Amino acid sequence: MPGRSIKIGRIAGIPVGISPWWLLVVALITWSLGASYFPEVITDLAPAVGYLLGLASALLLFASILAHEFGHAIVARRHGIEIEGIDLWLLGGVSKMRGEAHEPGDELRYAIAGPAVSALISAIFAVIAVLLPASTPEVITALVDYQLFVNVAILAFNMIPAFPLDGGRVLRALLWRRSGDMDRATTTAAAIGRVFGWLMIAAGILEVFAGGPGGLWLSLVGLFIVFAAGAQANTSRVQAALSGITAAQLMSTPVVSIGSALSVADAVEGYFVAYRYTAFPVTDPAGRAMGLLTATAVQRMSAYDRERHTALEAAETDPSLMVSADLDVASLLTRPAFLRVGRAVVIDASRIPIGLLSITDVQRALRASAIAGRRGGDAVGQLSGRG
Ligand SMILES: [Zn+2]
C-alpha cells in the first residue's frame, strides 16, 4: 500500500526508504508540537525553540519507529525470510518481506520483535524520566516525557489484535499453532482485523463530529487495516489454492528461444511476427536461458533502437524469472519481478528453457480451482490487475 519511496541509505544491509508522505508527517508533528504541546508544558518558551523541539521530537520519533521495524527485520532475516527494505510512510513503518514464515513459532518471534524494541525504548525513557534531577531544565524533561509517551503509544497501538498489525500477527501465529492450518488462521485473524478496522473508522468519525480532528487519523488507520486485512486474506487464499502445484504443471510448451546476439529488429520479424507469442526466452549459443524478451519491452523501443540493440540487451535478466520445473507456483507470486513482468522461463537442470509460465496460466489454474469448489476463487480478480 505505501507508494513510491525515496531511498535514504542502508542500515545493517537493509535499504531504508521514506515516502514523501512521511515528510508531511514530520512537518505536521513539528508544527503541532511547536505550536501547542511545548509552549503549554514549558514556561516562557521562545516560539523558535518550541518548533526546534518539535522537529527534534519528530526526528526522535522517526528513529523509534525505525528501531521498531529493525526489530522485525533482523529477527525475520534470522529465520530465513528475506527483507527487501524498510519504508517509512504516512502511518508509520513497514518492513517489506519476501515470503512468509514457515512455522508459527517463527511468525510469533518475528511479530513480537518490533513491539519488544518499542517496550525497551519506552523503559529506557521511563528510567531517564525518573532519574532526572529536579533541577533539570524543562526543555529536557518535556522532550523525554514526549518520547516516553509516543513509544508507549507505538507499543500499545501495534499490539491491538487487528491483523496485519503486530498484535494481529501474534494472534495469527497462536491460532496457527493451535490448528496447524496457516490459511485458516490468516482468514480468522484477517476477519478480526477488519472488525477492528471498521470500529476505528466509526470511532474516528464520531470523534471528528465531537470536535476532535485527530479522529480523521484514526479513521485513516482503520481504513488501512480494513484494506490490508482483506488483501492478506486474498493472498492467503491464492496460496492455499495453488499449494502443491509446480511450474511444470502450469507452463506452456513448446518453447521457442531467441539467440542472445540477434538484433531486436530481427527478433520482431523472425519471432514475434512469425510465432505471435508475447514473450521468448533469450539463450546463449549453448541454448541456456539468459533472459526473457517480452513484447512490452520491444514495443517501448524505437525502430532505431531495435536495430542497434541485441535481444539480450533488451531482455529482462532478473535471475528470479528463471525457475526450475518443480518450483511451487505459490512461491512465484511472492517474487516482485514475476508480478512486474508477468512471465517466467521454466528451465531444466542445465538451464535449457522447457516452457514459459505466465500470470495468465496462474489465473487459469485459480479459476479452475474455483470451479472445482476449492478455495481461492474470488482471489482471481486480485491477481489480474498485476499482469
Ligand atoms: Zn511492528
Can you walk me through this structure?
The protein is 60% helix and 14% strand. With 387 residues, it is an alpha/beta fold. The protein has three domains: 1-159, no CATH class; 168-242; 247-384, CBS-domain, CATH 3.10.580.10. The strands form three sheets. The chain has a four-stranded mixed β-sheet with strand order 1-2-3-4. A three-stranded mixed β-sheet has the order 5-6-7. Helix 2 (47-78) runs antiparallel to helix 3, helix 2 packs parallel to helix 4 (138-158) and helix 3 (104-131) runs antiparallel to helix 5 (166-179). The chain starts with 5 loop residues before the first strand and ends with a helix. The model is unreliable at 375-387 (pLDDT under 50). The structure holds zinc ion (ZN). Zinc ion (ZN) is lined by residues 68, 72, 114, 158, 166.
Outline: elongated
Give the cofactors and ligands.
zinc ion
Q: Averaging pLDDT over every residue, what do you get?
A: 85
CA radius of gyration is 26 Å
Largest sheet: 4 strands, mixed
Count of separate structural domains: 3
Measured between the Cα atoms of the first and last residue, the distance is 17 Å
Low-confidence stretches: 375-387
Strand order of the largest sheet: 1-2-3-4
Percent helix: 55-70%
SS content category:
alpha/beta
- Written as H for each helix and E for each strand, in order along the chain, the element string is EEHHEEHHHHHHEHEEHHHEHHEEHH
What is the strand content? 5-15%
> What's the β-strand tally?
10
Counted by DSSP, the helix tally is 16
